């Protein structure tokens, strides 16, 4: 029977307790939210909502076509120029998601005969970029510039190293300076995904590459999402103008995809302008993450020291992680729950995201609930 194998996979998942289900988030949720990626608390900000609404009124509900046909509005250009300038890069190109931006950057920069050196902890979208690329991929130990150096030494043609700047599972930062030095030693490009760094790290939220002194470097390309700190939806690639021109001409997820919706473009632009005006939001998100970590470890939890706004707390098993997250929810707190197969090391975690708009009282309440519901 067609799709019979799906039943087998589904029962294996049920037996392992790894079934995932969708739960709609009520518009007026009473839960204290430490599960979303809205790091700066901008998704519901009136200026961002108005940016989306005004863009939709002017340009319509959708982009109407691919960017090279009818899907480029003035807003796309403004967002690209302002995003590039904010993060310190020559040019930027906006995509319909961060996922599409990562597929574009990796595939377009890894031609036939090239080598891609990829960190073992990279996000699924970078991994998929490696899978689609014409070059050969070598996966190296997590966070290890020496391993990257060694791998680059085996390249027989053009090479890039690919890494998240902040890893989404544990919230640890990549050794960007070491990675850049390794790439420079071999004339390789460095492609980094700053999904969790933009708006949180670097001066006023200019991102992890900016903080590491790599902004504007001719051999560095950065991908970002507009869906976390900027409270919107979409993604972008930032880098030297010649790389961006190359993507316009060669990146399939740019050429064959409908342009980013005007509302998302307008919301991201409004968020970027607000962040420029209120740079203290970035530092506050980091401060909230540190406060969460300090208070959690003080009450005996095993939590990874956060380098950005993601705080990861270890759970004893996948089952207990799911129950712990459900008990938190019942007590009024929304947290993320990471378990296999999303975590390559098999360790289940509660994943908390710090938000710049959390009060001290809310931080204490969250830590209290996590402690009270501990398995
Ligand atoms: N990279 C990383 C590290 C991410 O966490 C995410 C979002 N989960 C993405 C890329 C994908 O971005 P988007 O959601 O905009 O497609």
From TrEMBL:
Key words of the record: Acyltransferase, Biotin biosynthesis, Pyridoxal phosphate, Transferase
Enzyme Commission no: 2.3.1.47
Listed transmembrane segments: none
Catalytic activity: 6-carboxyhexanoyl-[ACP] + L-alanine + H(+) = (8S)-8-amino-7-oxononanoate + holo-[ACP] + CO2
Cofactor: pyridoxal 5'-phosphate
Family annotation (InterPro entries): Aminotrans_II_pyridoxalP_BS, Aminotransferase_I/II_large, AON_synthase_class-II, PyrdxlP-dep_Trfase, PyrdxlP-dep_Trfase_major, PyrdxlP-dep_Trfase_small
Domain Aminotransferase class I/classII large: 31-369
This protein's record includes keyword tRNA processing: no
Keyword Acyltransferase attached: yes
Pathway(s) of this molecule: Cofactor biosynthesis; biotin biosynthesis
Family statement: Belongs to the class-II pyridoxal-phosphate-dependent aminotransferase family. BioF subfamily.
PANTHER family: 8-AMINO-7-OXONONANOATE SYNTHASE, CLASS II AMINOTRANSFERASE/8-AMINO-7-OXONONANOATE SYNTHASE
Self-association and partners: Homodimer.
Record's protein name: 8-amino-7-oxononanoate synthase
Organism (species): Streptomyces ossamyceticus
Classification lineage: Bacteria, Bacillati, Actinomycetota, Actinomycetes, Kitasatosporales
């Amino acid at each position: 029977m067609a799709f019979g194998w799906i039943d087998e996979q589904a029962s294996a998942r049920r037996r392992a307790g790894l079934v995932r289900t969708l739960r709609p988030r009520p518009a007026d949720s009473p839960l204290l939210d430490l599960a979303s990626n809205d790091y700066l608390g901008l998704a519901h900000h009136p200026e961002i909502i108005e940016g989306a609404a005004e863009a939709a009124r002017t340009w319509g509900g959708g982009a109407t076509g691919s960017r090279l046909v009818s899907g480029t509005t003035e807003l796309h250009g403004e967002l690209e120029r302002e995003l590039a300038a904010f993060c310190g890069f020559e040019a930027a190109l906006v995509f319909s998601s961060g996922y599409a931006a990562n597929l574009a950057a990796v595939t377009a920069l890894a031609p036939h005969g090239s080598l891609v050196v990829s960190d073992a902890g990279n996000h699924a979208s970078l991994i998929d970029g490696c899978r689609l690329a014409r070059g050969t991929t070598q996966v190296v130990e997590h966070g290890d510039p020496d391993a990257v150096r060694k791998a680059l030494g085996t390249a027989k043609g053009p090479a890039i190293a690919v890494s998240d700047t902040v890893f989404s599972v544990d919230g640890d930062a990549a050794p960007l300076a070491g990675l850049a030095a390794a790439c420079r030693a071999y004339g390789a490009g460095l492609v980094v995904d700053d999904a969790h760094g933009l708006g949180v790290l670097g001066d006023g939220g200019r991102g992890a590459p900016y903080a590491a002194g790599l902004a504007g470097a001719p051999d560095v390309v950065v991908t970002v999402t507009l869906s976390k700190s900027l409270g919107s939806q979409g993604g972008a690639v930032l880098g030297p103008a010649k790389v961006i021109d190359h993507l316009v001409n060669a990146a399939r997820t740019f050429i064959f995809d409908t342009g980013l919706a005007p509302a998302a473009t307008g919301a991201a632009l409004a968020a970027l302008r607000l962040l420029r005006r209120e740079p203290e939001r970035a530092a506050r998100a980091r401060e909230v993450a540190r406060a969460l970590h300090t208070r959690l470890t003080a009450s005996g939890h095993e939590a990874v020291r956060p380098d950005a706004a993601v705080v990861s707390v270890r759970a004893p098993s996948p089952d207990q992680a799911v129950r712990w997250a459900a008990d938190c929810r019942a007590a009024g707190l929304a947290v993320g729950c990471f378990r296999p197969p999303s975590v390559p090391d098999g360790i289940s975690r509660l994943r908390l995201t710090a938000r710049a708009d959390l009060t001290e009282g809310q931080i204490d309440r969250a830590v209290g609930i996590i402690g009270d519901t501990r398995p």
